[in-house]
Structures are given as structure tokens and as C-alpha cells.
């Protein structure tokens, strides 16, 4: 959830950089809506895990398992909707790339920013695939063949999360996407850009 939250926050700043007028949502809503959805997913999974672990009847254990599964499915749905909105914005912004500010155009052409976008995309799909695997892992109940396959567990849990960590660390926005850390919020709808000393409104 924390890795996906970082991606949600990054999209907000990408939109502020390349044109909020091309977004279906106001930039700040991406963090509020999607991080909120992830928190709900964590609550469902935590409540389900606690219920299943403390259950003294099969029906209660099944109820906990189903609650955990619902939390993971909710997380996949959240990621899917986010991915659709992010793709939609990317296409719309690319279609209007000739009207983007000069600073945004220059940033878009740099190698480190292209690597940053590639790393962000790879991290997103790593998290998404890992969550889809967890649905299959839990859907068959405790002790099913998928859950007992150590190789698949290492690949879909450990390796994919490691890929997300490396991508988000190696291509850190502090180095690859300076506008993200040069902004600070000075009001509910106004963000100040430190480097330029200017203000931009979240529309």
C-alpha cells in the first residue's frame, strides 16, 4: 500500500507539471481518493486476517478469509481504476504536448525523466501483478496448491515487491523529477514552486 501511495502522489505532480487541464480529476483528488481506497483495503485485510487467526470455528475462519480476499480484490480494483485514469491522462497530455510549458517539454526530453517514467510504470505493474497473485493465492482457501508453491510465492511476492522497491529507489523523483520536490502547498488549492517562486492552482 505504501508503494502504491507513492505512485498516486507522483501522478498528482506529473499532472501539475504537464497540465492539469488534461486530467479528469483535480490533481489533489488522486492522492485523497486512491490512498483512501488503499487504507480501506488494508483495514479489510487486517480485520480479515485477525478474524481468521483467532477463529475457533470453521465458519468464522472462512468469514475472515473472505474478508481478506475482499480487501485484496478492492486493492486490485483501485489499482485498475488508477491505471486507467493515469493512461487516459498520459494520452490526453501527449495529444496536447505542443501546448505544454517550455520547462515541461525540456523535462520530458531528458533521459533521467524517461527512466523515471519507465521505473514508475514497472513498479505499478509489479504491484498490480503481485496483488492479482494474492487473489488467486487466497481464493482457494488456506493450504491450497497455489499457497503451498514456494517458487511462485517467492516470484510473485518477493521478487515483484523487490522490483518495485528498486524502481522507486533508483529512479527517485528527487533526482529524476525535480518539480515534485520543488513544490509546497501554501493553501487548499495553491501550490508554490520553490525554484521559480511562482504559484500554480490545482484545477
What does this structure look like?
The two termini are 27 Å apart. It is built from 8 helices and 3 strands; from the N terminus they run ααααααααβββ. It has 203 residues and is mainly alpha-helical. A 3-stranded antiparallel sheet has the order 1-2-3. Helix content is 73%, strand content 5%. The model is unreliable at 186-203 (pLDDT under 50). A hairpin with a 4-residue loop joins β1 (183-185) and β2.
Total of DSSP H or I helical runs spanning 4+ residues: 8
User: Which spans of ≥5 residues are poorly predicted at pLDDT below 50?
Assistant: 186-203
SS class: mainly alpha
> Could you give the order of the helices and strands?
HHHHHHHHEEE
> What's the mean pLDDT score?
87
- Quote the beta fraction: 5-15%
Termini separation? 27 Å
Quaternary state reads single chain
Rg (C-alpha, Å): 20 Å
Per the principal axes of the C-alpha atoms, what is the gross shape?
Answer: elongated
Largest sheet: 3 strands, antiparallel
Helix fraction bin: over 70%
Instruction: Write out the strand line-up for the largest beta sheet, numbering strands in chain order.
Output: 1-2-3
Number of DSSP strand runs:
3
